[in-house]
Amino acid sequence: MKKSLAITLLLAGTLGAVSAQAIDTKARFMAANCAYCHGPEGKSRGAIPSLAGLEQKYFVEQMKAFRDGSRPATVMQKHAMGYTDAEFEQLGAWFSAIK
Ligand code: HEC
After folding, report:
1. What is the pLDDT of residues 47-92, one digit of tens each?
2. Higher pLDDT, 15 or 19
3. Could you tell me if the CB of 53 is within 6 A of ligand 1?
4. How far apart are CA 56 and CA 66, in angstroms?
5. Ligand 1 centre and the CA of 1: distance in Å?
């Protein structure tokens, strides 16, 4: 009885770690699409704003505003169209964690 509980907890812990890593990999993959303009790791070297260190809440709000057209954009509406709210959250978490 005790042993099976231990195994269950062990499994739960392992699965948790795997899914967190999967999200991480997905966020990294999505963020790579932004690097061409916003710089590697979201650190821009030009006129385009950096994404690194932006607050997640601010980031998600801007992406939604680009997508629905309430924030005027040259290219960002096209990019924002391709992502879901959940993906904005993941991207926001990813960029906000970069120092
Ligand atoms: C082709 C170049 C290009 C690509 C690729 C691109 N962006 Fe942008 N981004 C811009 C430009 C230019 C702006 C300024 C607003 C505008 O003119 O569209 C901007 C603005 C932003 C802003 C607002 C920043 C602020 O400080 O308010 C966010 C957030 C953003 N981009 C996120 C992203 C994300 C996330 C991706 C990848 C999914 C991405 N961008 C891909 C060019 C790009």
Report:
1. 999 999 999 999 999 999 999 999 999 999 999 999 999 999 999 9
2. 19
3. no
4. 15
5. 55
| Structure token digits, residue 52 | 């690194």
53 neighbors 97 (Cβ within 8 angstroms) = no
Output the six-digit token pair for 51: 């994404």
Query: Nearest-CA neighbor of 34 among 26, 42, 24?
Result: 42
CB-based contacts of 39, cutoff 8 Å, min separation 6: 45, 46, 48, 50, 52
Task: Report d(CA 67, CA 80) in Å as an integer.
Answer: 5
The rounded distance, in Å, linking the Cα atoms of 49 and 87 is: 20
Distance from the alpha carbon of residue 25 to the mean position of ligand 1, in angstroms: 21
Side-chain half-sphere of 33: how many Cα atoms within 13 Å? 12
